[in-house]
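job 3f2a | input accepted
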Amino acid sequence: MQLRLRFQRRLTAAFLVSLASLAAAASGQWSGDPAANLVLSDRMGEQVQPKIVAGADGGAYVSWFDNATGGYDVTLQRLDLQGVEQWTHNGVLVADRGFSSTQDYGLAIDTGGNALLAYRDDSGANEQIAAAKVSPAGALLWGVGGILVTSTTGFVAAPKIAGASDGNVVVAWSEDSSVMAQKLDGDGMPLWSPAVALVPARGAFQLCDLHAAEDGSVILSFVHQGAGTRHLWAQKLDTDGDPVWGGGHVQVYDGAGSLQFGSFPAFVPDGSGGAVFSWYITSPLQVFAQRVLANGSEAFAHDGVAGSTDLVRLRASPTVAFDPGTEESFLFWVETDSLQSQFGIWGQKLDAAGVRQWTDTGRSLVPLGPDSFSFVQARTLDGGAVAAWIDSVSFGNDPIRASRRDGAGDPVWDPTLVDLKSSATGSSRLASATSTAGFGMYVWSDGTRDADILAQNLNPDGSLGPPLLFADGFESGDTSAWTTAVP
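job 3f2a | predicted structure (487 res):
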């Protein structure tokens, strides 16, 4: 270790001048100042609903809707490891649309490193679902505006997209009362004829999320809307579009309670062909997590494990991160008092069997107080996890903060909380990804003017700015031995 440290100190000194030159030359890069975050889009009008997905090079693709010229247009930018924009500032226009309002959409990456997008299209007589593939150089591989995945007179909404492990692409969406899915080849040609339809025996299905799994398969989650209830279901489709988890799907949550209206919970793949889900129910407000294994069986008790057994306080807005090495799940959420007048951030670790590890009531990251919180994000790191969230101090003053916890739930950083953004402006739609270099990447819509897209990285030691890397490659571990990235 001493030899490595001496070598890295020499490396740091040798590259100080190079790093300074890079900072002066770059038009934008990861900022070390939470009051001056990286600006990805600052055009007139609103830029909203950013998403981020990590690339193999340590950088990321970032997408958003741009309403600068009328209509929320689909826009994309690529960042390298240092946070430098690889394309023109304000991004590349993927689809020029006329919508005056927005729905959810999909961003993913394929096995070739191309960005994938799925969104609603209003260029014809009826709204359709479209998809686009964009190369690392910014080329629109499926043409301007992408390709139409549907040709329907039905109502279509909120599509998602995934890069399958076989190199193809799967798009899923809600259509009337069903969930639909289509597989596309590298040229955007459909492979499933007809498209797969998940049709409820009664009620309605609404798509929540979509991710790639093993052997060209994908996992979908969706809400089953019944008579006064909303439950969370899931299904895996194999490479041919056939259901793997049975004709009745996996009912992740079908208990006496109901998901909040308008809530469409995301999930994370477990890296072994399964998935980890988090959600919250109403009456009372409570958060849960569940892992579904590759064969469709539930690793935890049916209807999931509650984050806390406390029956006085309430909790909502959960997010979950999964560590494939330990098979542990890290659940974070917003905790409130019974009157919903005081708010805090809480977390819980679940072992492989779903047993609560941070006491039965979880660990407090931020104690109850007057600030409200939203868009909680979770990423695993070295046997623990990093949680980040928007902290609404007052109207239009929404800093973004983060805390790292070790496997026991204890804080790693001093001070315990780190500001990702400290300027007194509004924040919304915080999204995150983990760089292949081991640091966190965060994007949000900021109320600097109408609404701009800002970004910030977060190193494992709690610092901002130039990524911290080992001299011999991308690793995580003992952060005392890290040095600034080689440009």
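job 3f2a | The chain has one domain: 37-462.
job 3f2a | closed
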